[in-house]
Amino acid sequence: RLRARGRLDADERLTDTGRAERETIEHATDRAMRPALAALDGDADELIGLLRPWGKAIREAGGYIGGPVDLWPNRD
What we know:
mainly alpha, 2 helices, flat
């Protein structure tokens, strides 16, 4: 369906349209998270530091299915 809608090319890579729509979603997610980050009151870095090893262990154990999330570069 994503190819039919012009979001993915024949090699299942994002097209320019797909990339633009993905960015729109990312920005909407960032806006939606602002209240949660504000509630952390400066403790976001500590929370992320605590969760990073957990996320890494989940990825290494295959706990996430493959999909568009795999297109995002690994930040670690």
